[in-house]
Amino acid sequence: MSETYQRHDQRAADQLRPISFQNNIAPHATGSTLIEWGDTRVICGVSIEESVPRWMQAQGVEGGWITAEYSMLPYSTLDRKRRDVSKGKLDGRSTEIQRLIGRSLRAGLDLKKLGSRTVWIDCDVLQADGGTRTASITGAYVALSLAVNKLINEGKLLESPFLDPVAAVSVGVVEGTPLLDLCYVEDVAAEVDMNLVMTTTGKYIEVQGTGEEATFSADELNEMLALGRTGVEALAKLQREAIAAGS
Question: How many domains does the chain have?
Fold first, then answer.
């Protein structure tokens, strides 16, 4: 393993970028936050519909549903990104990420306790510098928690539907060195790129890992998983503080 790789922002291998939350950024949303994760910025907003999808009605499925939409705004990258509406279809990456966000948040809740309602989570990337999907999931949990607290305070929910807090972080191997929380320049140079979605109690929801024209060993995998757990524990503390401040 290389011990000479120096991160361009001088972080330690197991160190997250600075992370902050600005809650209630979207006044018309039931819950919202702007997560700033290094130079990545994502607005996460939650809207509530007092109905469920037709397939749930047709199949007699009890409870509610959580779904997500994800978009990178045109000015979020150095070169302007065309809006999906101008292309006439959602690109494959955005489709994959918004499905991941929905799966991740559904795993952390008892959907039956939501009642017969649909929770929409919108994640809009204002600026991208790596880790937009992990920032979206981590911020979406905060926005959803704020929305749930509001529903409880209004008497629309009798109890919290949450099972476990949810957060996500990237890990990877760059020049032979396992790293936590890759920024863009590290992500494009990575031999291995992995995203971990976890409950903050240490259970895995999803592991997305790829050798980028390379392979990785079991030892490297275990080290990346350990880095990810460390990152999620740190994220959980920041999430708790943000939710407490916004409730």
Answer: 1
